[in-house]
């Protein structure tokens, strides 16, 4: 099995770009072929499509080949994949799994409490806590989110501390970690602030479009007594684990509550719709089945032993897309 996965991964890396260029294909990954609605033991390269069409309705260039380098392919219908964000109570202290959001969005999910530099921080998505790159550090974070009745400042629980910029197609390059550029931007922002301007600058990177690995952000609580370091209906996190094919998983989200599923694909590359005609390409994702809906974005994903493995951020009616937690922790310098 390890040899087969290694071969499939190599081939997927070689062919992902050409597969995603086909009309209707929204994601590629490695999983098990589905025959007559049932999962088989045959490992394959899986293409997710918005709508499954008859072969004769597709041009030759848009048809997915039956195999690549000896590894069979399969086509599954997931629909268009969106970043989950949609329209529950006020909790103090607040556990993971409850409604939260930046003051200017509707509502998402407080994934879990983690640590940065020894301090507790809220972990959720960029598009939940940082309004898809539009927020400023220090902005108010509400619990519950505004769609669930949260108001600023009465329901402010935290301030935005940091986020990983999302590379959105058609928009300028996102902020970088460059200290020199960041210092220049900070200096110019200070001048703008002194002059009464709301305009803010950000340092930008030369990172190529298509290198997203996470949709993640953190927020610092206003009061440490508001921290409840467990996840509603799940309990305390018992460690971390790397998500693998076939692994049983669960999550607690503000919309669908506690749901269970299975990692159906790994090494997923997926185009995600962020609204307003904006799209972002994410690589090295995990895909599960229908275990989430809008508003579940930001949910922590765990295995059956309560080990943290991912951060839910997108999906469709048939799929759930999950960031690998190791990437999230690495990019935001987090610990449990």
Structural features, described:
The chain has 336 residues and is mainly beta. The chain has three domains: 2-77, GMP Synthetase, Chain A, domain 3, CATH 3.30.300; 91-229, no CATH class; 234-332, Thrombin, subunit H, CATH 2.40.10.10. The protein has helices at residues 2-20, 126-129, 179-194, 325-332; strands spanning 25-35, 38-49, 67-68, 71-77, 82-83, 94-96, 99-102, 108-109, 112-116, 119-124, 140-142, 156-163, 217-221, 227-231, 248-253, 257-275, 278-288, 300-303, 308-315, 320-324. The strands form three sheets. The chain has a seven-stranded antiparallel beta sheet. The protein has a six-stranded antiparallel barrel with strand order 15-16-17-20-19-18. Strands 6-14 form a two-stranded parallel sheet. The longest helix has 19 residues, at 2-20. Mean pLDDT is 89; it is low at 172-208.
């Amino acid at each position: 099995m390890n040899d087969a996965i290694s071969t499939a991964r190599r081939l997927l890396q070689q062919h992902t770009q050409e597969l995603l260029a086909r009309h209707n294909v929204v994601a590629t990954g490695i999983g098990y072929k589905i025959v007559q609605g049932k999962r088989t033991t045959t490992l394959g390269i899986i293409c997710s499509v918005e709508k499954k069409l008859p072969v004769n309705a597709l041009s030759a260039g848009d048809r997915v080949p039956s195999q690549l380098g000896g590894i069979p392919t399969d086509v599954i219908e997931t629909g268009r994949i969106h970043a989950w964000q949609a329209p529950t109570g006020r909790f103090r202290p607040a556990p993971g799994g409850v409604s939260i959001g930046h003051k200017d969005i509707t509502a998402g999910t407080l994934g879990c409490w983690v640590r940065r530099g020894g301090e507790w921080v809220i972990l959720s998505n960029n598009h939940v806590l940082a309004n898809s790159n539009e927020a400023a550090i220090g902005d108010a974070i509400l619990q519950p989110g505004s769609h669930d009745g949260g108001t600023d400042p009465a329901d402010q629980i935290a301030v935005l501390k940091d986020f990983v910029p999302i590379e959105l197609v058609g928009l300028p390059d996102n902020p970088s970690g460059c200290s020199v550029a960041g210092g220049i931007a900070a200096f110019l922002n200070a001048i703008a602030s002194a002059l009464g301007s709301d305009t803010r600058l950000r340092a930008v990177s030369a990172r190529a479009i298509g290198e997203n690995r996470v949709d993640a952000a953190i927020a610092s609580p206003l009061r440490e007594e508001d921290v409840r370091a467990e996840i509603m209906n799940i309990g305390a996190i018992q460690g971390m684990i790397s998500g693998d094919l076939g692994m049983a998983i669960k999550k607690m989200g503000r919309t669908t509550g506690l749901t269970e599923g299975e990692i159906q694909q790994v090494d997923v590359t997926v185009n995600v719709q962020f609204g307003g005609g904006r799209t972002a390409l994410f690589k090295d994702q995990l895909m599960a089945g229908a275990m989430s809906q809008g508003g579940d974005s930001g949910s922590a994903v765990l295995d059956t032993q309560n080990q943290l493995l991912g951060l839910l951020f997108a999906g469709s009616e048939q799929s759930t897309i999950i960031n690998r937690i190791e990437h999230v922790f690495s990019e935001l310098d987090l610990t449990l």
